[in-house]
Amino acid sequence: MARYSKKKIAQLAEQALCERYPEAQCALVYDQPYQLMIAGRLSAQCTDARVNLVTPELFGRYPDLKSLADARITDVEEIIRPCGLYHTKAESIVNMCRILYYDLDGVIPDSIDELIKLPGIGRKTANLIMGDIHKKPAVVCDTHCIRISNRLGLISTKDPAAAESELRKILPPEKSSDFCHRIVYFGREVCTARKPDCEHCIIRSYLLKAYPDHICKL
Ligand code: SF4
User: So what's the pLDDT on residue 4?
Assistant: First the structure.
């Protein structure tokens, strides 16, 4: 029996995902870096699809950072209401924009430690910013990444911070951000929460070449 290596499994999964999804795209739609921070904040306990339905109106009504920094929280609440938790999300979004515009001159911090000091910014959004905006190693642990990484045996935790820490030890830093983007699409289309389509799984076919007895943990 071939000896399992988490790094090898991650490498094969990454290659398979690259083949299936040549374009590694963030599932959240944005034009400006601060807009990704807002979309990331809105995505807490909400689907990316719903966020993408709401942000065009939000960014249309408030077309730059200053207008959001000066926005009335109650007005923002009305627009983002479909994303849920709209009181706290609106408050943190406006407060974050105030800090970004008035205190930081619009410069987005480039470390996770600095980013998570901003209102409403957790590790997931901070990693999105590090990977997509600053092009630095990032591991965005969303629900798809955590579920599939557990199934593949890369990690054995559902805690996002612990999952991020484990995956950082396994994924090549220069590929980790794109890996996380691709796994979101894979999680929606193939390895879904309720009914993974193992029969048509490209990761499985890659893994079986190296580990003929590999079985995911469901
Ligand atoms: S074999 Fe099944 S459980 Fe494993 S990654 Fe593929 S779809 Fe998911």
Answer: 82
